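--- STAGE predict ---
source: upstream dedup step, 1 unique chain passed
mode: sequence only
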Amino acid sequence: MGLFFALGALSLSGCADLLPKSHSEVRSNWASFEAARATIERIVPYRTTSADLKALGIDPKVTANVVLLTYSDILLRFPLGGAMPPERLDRGLRECLEAGKACEGLSIAVRDIRRDRTGDFWLDALKFKRVVDVSGWTFNALVLVVEGRVVYVIHGGQPVVQEQETSTQPLGPLQGWGDLLPGAIR
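--- STAGE serialize ---
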């Protein structure tokens, strides 16, 4: 009898390890927020060229996390006639908008997010209470290029993501039974 309880206790130990985990990452040249920021901060408007960008690993034809923006895409982000008069815009941004189709943009979006379900295994498995710890980082940047030369660069993001999502269903596995009834009645 003691052996039965010992085996039962052993089988239940470490149940939290049985909870699902997920990881969402945009594969890139950068392993951290700091690495991405350091690369972008090496870009100097009016000095950095398109060839320099490729050397830094910023190439929409090769790098999966770099999106090539058309002039129309750029106009959607910075509409002309907005709240700020054009003369108050950053010089590079103004030159890009004035250059029309000669201006292209590069949008960079990188993230590394981990989702770990923690808490009580049985409450989670039976859908009474689910706790998910979310951690990681996100980074984004915009680079504007006119005739092969960078004229504007800006970056941002969230260096540290630390969230906890908690969902409870007082009826556990029976919580969604009402959704099943209409199909069963037909």
